[in-house]
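Quick note —
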Amino acid sequence: MTLNLRKLSVVEFLSLRHSIPLVDARSPGEYAYGHIPCAVNIPLFDDAQRAEVGTLYKKEGSEKAVLRGINLAAPQMSAKLAMALDLAADKQLLVHCWRGGMRSEAMAWLFSAGGIAATILEGGYKAYRNHILEDLGRERRFIILGGLTGSGKTGILKHIMSAGDPVTDLEGLASHRGSAFGALGQPPQPSSEHFANLLYDDLNQKLADTRIWLEDESRNIGTVFMPDNFFEQMRKAPVIALMMSIETRMPRLLNEYTSFPVSQLEASVMRISKRLGGDKTREALEALQRGDYPTAIKITLEYYDKSYYYGLSKRTAGQVIFVKTETDDVAVNAAKVKEAAGSIL
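Predicted structure written out below.
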């Protein structure tokens, strides 16, 4: 049987993934680290098999590696085809591996045995990654919502989004709220690689040339690092910085964090202990031990406020519009922020 393999460029391939199911033929470990959102993992090899075949290829050449690969994959071929048949829509699948080579071609051959027409990504996942990283650096109309820690920026952005403005929730994509306390109550973070994949998808669901709201972030959100070229675009964008007193922010932070075990709060304080200094760290930990959450929060906020003001001072003159507020009301503050934004658009 002659198999005519259909291969498509990244752009063509991605345009089909919402109508044709997508199979990632890489190993489970590769997939877990980062994958095309919506892809289903049907691996040709497991992680150990992939390592074995790769080592054999380097040491003894392609022929022995291919033969060993066939021996390793053969026992599971029927199970893999069964998965593909369950997944295939109208007997069609998209498939990719790392470089669009032997693994995706082998899976396309297997799928064809079940009457499935498989389309391969030219250049594989590597080509996809090159494409999205380039795209994330292109110029977009961003507007940044900044403000002191505990100002309710995430809630404000949700309010803005409910009113119809496009918002990309960077902290939601990163599964982290940004500070040393940001991992509390959150699911495990994605890798920086997969974060970029998710970010690309989110941004490309927005209409071209539309204004997109983002929350002000440092280069990393927890363990996730933003792509450099995307972060540089963020740094150029206008910033609306919401300013409110510690007293106004305190009720929100008490509500958000006092439900967590003291041990987790202490661990979060220790993450910034070098920046707080020995005395302040000890004061914060002692306050937590005696249940004096306001004191512990005030100590950490004073550090974050100072750090944030310093960061704003590094922005270009005229780039930041300060919006003062005396309320924690999300709707009121969203209106203030949007009014300020109107003056720069």
